[in-house]
Specification:
Helix content: 40-55%
Structural class: alpha+beta
Number of strands: 14
Number of helices: 30
Strand content: 5-15%
Distance between the termini: 22 Å
């Protein structure tokens, strides 16, 4: 490979404006489809399209055709068994976050998995309970059915116990979440996840981890703490915990500490030696088995007052119909739950799809999770997404397809119907300890804050604002605040872009911000202004204001000139000015004060009217009668539109007014690098007139610069300026011929 200093390239071509380029290079005519054409195409059915639609709606058809029993089946079996054991434990633990009986968490590891097996496009994520969603569901459950006080006035609650009421709320909410996700999938709005940036998700999940940690302290300490919901709920929970801290159950606390230390230690071993271990050590399962045995042997529940899982039914409960009243009361919370559940699952699925080289479809994922939650909600399941740790187990143990997920559901089925009774003596403190240990990854995201502060402060503000709002206001309001902050940063960056004045890097055709370089050449009388963002209604005024960085305010100068011309005409009419061989001369030596009458400002904004003047006014020279007009030190202005992706109508009007202000003070304006579709829009919107013509558009800055050098040859006699100009022309190898089009070689 050549060293950078020896690499050169040379191009010889004519100087092009947009007009000359279009004259020499014919464009291909492309017929643009009308809305009716898109509508007809969308609803036209062919055999090929029907086949593709079937494969799209049932992705299992696609990967089952390439499934290799010999190479993949054993890996899927090992992965399915490992994931199933973790899913059982996490299902029991995460149900505590939702304030419902533990065995309903097992349903989330079974029913949604069955639907996702047929409809999902990811082959590696493990579908089931997710702690953040469980916590958000739990906030709704405790709001409608609080630990203390009367439940909400819902007809379907009549005749139900408190636990049954909570199950009805949880199942109905899960069903509604599924309806939202399914509806968004059918409407093809999977792109909505793009509005949840990685920064926002990181701050939100960190706040959720804090909520989860606080909510599990009551199980770790063996205390009875009522559930709180709404803003500042975390403060009320901590207050209740600390007021009862002297009543801590020492058996729960010691058991939790032992479990957390062991699980953290073995997980560290798993991470450090994962390349040498065939499968990660299932330490959570091992500790759960040991805890169950110890609890049963010493009768923790009876002898020491330890709260245990209790009786687990060895059968599935009958499905229920969701409550419409619950729908009405939880719709506001259900939508963010649907968004967060999909966003987390899609982000994890995208990571594994890139790693294993296959495609996932965001819209189909919405449909899959929507159907999974509808199916699960009908059978009293928790809202399903994917847990990061569980998906990591499924992928790291060799899982190739969702057959591993199906096998994990079978493991859960065996536990529910066959051996669930073995988990009845399991202390809830052990489940709380397992939940807390699995929060390590989410809590450690806080270390990104210093990095964000150094590299991108608006992103840091989004992270911190989202995290703090979600902690103190609740997860639903926190997500809304985070979205608001994120949109504000987008608006801020688009509304106040970093406009700059460019200069030529000596010896090249490259133009950069003149503040960033020492060795640059700035042509005399020319300013190059770069706009690095779209121009629209929100930033057009900022753009026009930044144009004053070229050294003057064109509108102010235009008004001054029009006032001066009016004054000169008036003085000539009164005989106070006479025409001599040296120009206009005042007949009296007394200074004439400038009129302050600005009653007709519209006339002052029009082009200067030089009619009825005996000579042309030289604005760079001294004017008679002490009339003063600020000088204009440039003759050409180049606007770099290479980063402008669109213009709206408001911006179009503002741009037209700004260009006319410069043109009316004898500054030639050129626009370079403009998208042809923007030029076409300008034509359609009647942008061009007698003052603004299509000839102002050039392909590149260098094309415009060469045209300006030909139109305005430098007249300065300063040696340094001539040296710079000659250096520029020689190094650029510019040849400007009088009889032919100028050509550039560089």
């Amino acid at each position: 490979m050549l060293r950078p200093s020896t690499q050169r390239y040379s191009v010889t071509r004519p100087l092009y404006s947009e007009d000359t380029f279009e004259d020499e290079h014919a464009k291909v005519y492309r017929k643009h489809k009308r809305l009716l054409d898109h509508f007809i195409q969308y609803f036209t059915c062919t055999s090929e399209r029907a086949k593709n639609t079937a494969v799209s709606l049932l992705p299992i058809i696609g990967w089952m055709k390439i499934y290799s029993i010999k190479d993949w089946l054993l890996n899927d079996i090992v992965s399915g068994v490992s994931t199933g054991l973790v899913a059982v434990l996490q299902g029991l633990a995460y149900s505590l976050l939702a304030s419902i009986s533990p065995w309903y968490g097992l349903y989330a590891a079974f029913f949604p998995v069955i639907m996702y097996f047929f409809l999902g496009t990811s082959r590696h994520i493990s579908v089931g309970a997710f702690p953040v969603l469980s916590l958000m569901v739990g906030a709704v459950v405790t709001r409608l059915v609080p630990d203390e006080g009367l439940p909400a006035n819902i007809t379907a609650f009549e005749g139900l116990t408190k636990d049954e009421q909570r199950i009805l709320v949880s199942a109905s909410l899960t069903f509604l979440v599924g309806l939202f996700q399914l509806g968004m999938g059918l409407l093809q709005v999977g792109f909505i996840v793009m509005y949840l940036s990685d920064t926002l998700i990181s701050g939100f999940t960190t706040a959720a981890a804090v909520h989860i940690l606080v909510s599990q302290l009551k199980f770790v300490l063996g205390l009875t703490v009522p559930g709180f919901s709404g803003p500042l709920s975390i403060i009320y929970t901590l207050k209740s915990l600390f007021t009862q801290i002297t009543s801590t159950n020492i058996h729960d606390l010691v058991t939790s500490i032992v479990v957390m230390v062991m699980v953290l230690g073995v997980k560290e071993i798993n991470d450090r030696f994962k390349s040498k271990l065939p499968v990660p050590i299932p330490i959570e399962v091992i500790m759960t088995v040991i805890a169950c045995g110890v609890s049963y042997a010493f009768n923790f529940s009876e002898n020491h007052g330890v709260d245990v899982v209790g009786k687990i039914p060895n059968t599935f409960e009958s499905p229920i119909a969701p409550s419409l009243q619950v729908f009405q009361m939880t719709a506001v919370e259900a939508f963010p739950i649907a968004i967060v559940g999909f966003a987390v699952a899609f982000a994890v699925a995208k990571v594994y799809s890139v790693k294993h080289d296959y495609l996932i479809d965001g819209n189909q994922e919405l449909i899959a999770f929507g159907a999974s939650n509808i199916f699960g909600g009908a059978f009293k399941s928790l809202a399903a997404s994917t847990a990061l740790s569980r998906s990591a187990v499924q992928e790291s143990t060799g899982g190739k397809t969702q057959i591993a997920g199906l096998l994990s559901a079978l493991i859960v089925l065996v536990v529910i119907l066959g051996i669930g009774f073995l988990l009845e003596p399991l202390p809830k403190s052990v489940l709380g300890a397992v939940v807390i240990v699995n929060l390590k990854g989410m809590l450690m995201q806080v270390v990104t804050v210093p990095y964000l502060w150094k590299k991108d402060r608006p992103d840091c503000i989004v992270w911190v604002g989202t995290c703090l709002a979600a902690i103190f206001l609740g997860l639903d309001l926190g997500l809304a605040v985070g979205l608001g902050l994120e949109l504000l940063t987008v608006v801020f960056r688009a509304q106040f872009p970093r406009c700059c004045v460019l200069a030529n890097i000596s010896g090249t055709d490259i133009y950069r911000d003149r503040k960033d370089y020492v060795n640059f050449y700035e042509p005399e009388g020319v300013k190059i202004f770069r706009i690095p963002s779209p121009i629209f209604f929100a930033n057009i005024d900022f753009f026009r204001d930044k144009l004053k960085d070229v050294g003057f305010n064109p509108l102010r100068i235009l008004r001054k000139r029009n006032k001066a011309v009016k004054k000169i005409k008036k003085m000539i009419k009164k005989g106070e000015l006479t025409l001599t061989s040296n120009g206009l001369q005042a007949t009296c030596s007394m200074p004439i004060e400038e009129s302050e009458d600005e009653s007709n400002m519209e006339d002052l904004d029009k082009p200067t009217d030089y009619s009825d003047l005996p000579i042309q006014v030289n604005w760079s020279a001294d004017l008679p009668a002490n009339i003063r007009v600020p000088p204009v030190n440039i003759h050409s202005l180049i606007l770099d539109f290479s980063a402008v992706s669109f213009l709206d109508i408001s911006a179009l009007k503002g741009l037209k007014a700004a260009l006319k202000e410069f043109i009316r003070v004898s500054v030639d304006v050129y626009i370079v690098g403009c998208d042809p579709y923007i030029i076409e829009k300008l034509r359609n919107c009647k942008f061009f007139d007698d003052e603004i013509k299509t000839s102002i558009f050039f392909l590149t800055i260098h094309d415009a610069m060469l045209f300006i050098h030909e139109s305005h040859p430098p007249k300065t006699v300063k040696v340094l300026s001539w040296v710079n100009l000659l250096y520029f022309l020689q190094d650029m190898k510019i040849e400007v011929e009088t009889d032919t089009k100028p050509e550039t070689r560089f």
